[in-house]
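// run 5 | inverse folding | seed 20
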């Protein structure tokens, strides 16, 4: 199918304002379509032209155009513009297809004449871990995601795990949900220079050898399991945890202090993303002990970086890390310690994990994932 006469609109708030998961996904999708598709125009609807700190040059890419609220009313109530007002521009802008990249669609999307719609659902974690969310937040998320799933012509789930949740929890026809994986930033595919590695090591004061953890330090992501495993590992094994702190970080640090591990597990927050590829590539292994994820991008970043990866069972991490990675029960610190020890001491196992990881990672190249996304677009447009 030729897309050169097609104009695709996107909810661009996350692309413009979010530095982590949803923002990375949004920029990955739009940049991939700019580079690897013949789509005529890519219109990114962002609520605030003064909040573009994370756009990262996306707005300068071929075929990409930014759109912002134009009326005084919509500039005063930008959130309302995003959920209801932006559709007023679709006819004038010639939008053929609208893609909600972060689980949301304008609530009046079905009233937008001749516009088909797709929504990407990343996870329904708030349904699995309600204790981590306030009651009002849960109600808002549930309404947004459920309504988007009902209104969309097609739903993209970023994993089979998320598809199962959408079908089960929202009663969606499985035929309406397509699994299209997400990828990681292009920088992870390139070997960091010695200067970049030295800068990362000096900036973060990294130990010579370390196990890496990347992710918000919150209870669901289960860093405590890694801390407990550390008590069973040789004293020269250290952990560097990179991620935003929550109150749970204090619990982990208290455990480490009580068990003589304070100098072996360090939590680093506010780390510049440009340091990440070097930090991954210098690690001995990556451990992602999360109890539940929608996909688990740090595991993909690890295998792309060429290091062994260990995750936990119970959600979708096997989809991100592939068959060459190791998976343990999220409550089994003894099993995690044994797996880490084997990865650090068995050179043949390390080589096998690295080789299998790199082979599996090839499925997540931007050109391949863009091709799969275009198949979904073609299917939706053909049904019009």
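// decoded
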């Amino acid at each position: 199918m030729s897309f050169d006469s097609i104009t695709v609109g996107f909810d661009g708030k996350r692309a413009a304002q979010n530095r982590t998961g949803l923002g990375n996904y949004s920029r990955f999708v739009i940049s991939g379509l700019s580079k690897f598709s013949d789509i005529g125009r890519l219109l990114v609807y962002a609520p605030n032209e003064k909040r573009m700190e994370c756009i990262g040059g996306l707005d300068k890419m071929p075929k990409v155009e930014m759109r912002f609220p134009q009326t005084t009313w919509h500039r005063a109530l930008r959130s309302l513009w995003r959920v209801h007002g932006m559709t007023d521009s679709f006819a004038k802008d010639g939008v053929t297809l609208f893609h909600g990249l972060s689980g949301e669609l304008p609530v009046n999307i079905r009233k937008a004449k001749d516009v088909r719609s797709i929504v990407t659902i990343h996870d329904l974690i708030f349904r699995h871990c309600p204790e981590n969310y306030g009651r009002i937040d849960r109600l808002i998320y549930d309404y947004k995601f459920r309504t988007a799933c009902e209104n969309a012509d097609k739903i993209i789930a970023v994993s089979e795990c998320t598809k199962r949740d959408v079908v089960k929890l929202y009663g969606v026809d499985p035929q309406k949900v397509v699994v299209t994986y997400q990828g990681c930033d292009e920088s992870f595919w390139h070997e960091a220079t010695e200067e970049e590695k030295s800068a990362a090591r000096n900036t973060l004061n990294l130990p010579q050898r370390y196990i890496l953890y990347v992710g918000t330090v919150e209870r669901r992501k289960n860093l405590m399991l890694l801390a407990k495993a550390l008590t069973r590992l040789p004293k020269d094994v250290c952990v560097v945890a990179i991620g935003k702190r929550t109150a749970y970080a204090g619990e982990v640090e208290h455990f480490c202090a009580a068990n003589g591990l304070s100098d072996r597990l360090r939590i680093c927050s506010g780390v510049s993303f440009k340091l990440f590829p070097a930090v991954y590539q210098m690690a001995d292994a990556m451990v992602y002990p999360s109890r539940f994820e929608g996909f688990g991008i740090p595991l993909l970043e690890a295998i792309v970086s060429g290091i062994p990866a260990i995750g936990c069972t119970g959600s979708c991490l096997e989809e991100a890390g592939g068959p060459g990675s190791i998976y343990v029960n999220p409550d089994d610190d003894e099993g995690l310690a044994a797996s880490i020890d084997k990865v650090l001491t068995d050179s043949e196992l390390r080589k096998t994990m690295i080789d299998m990881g790199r082979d599996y990672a090839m499925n997540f190249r931007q050109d391949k994932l863009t091709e799969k996304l275009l198949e979904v677009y073609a299917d939706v447009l053909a049904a019009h």
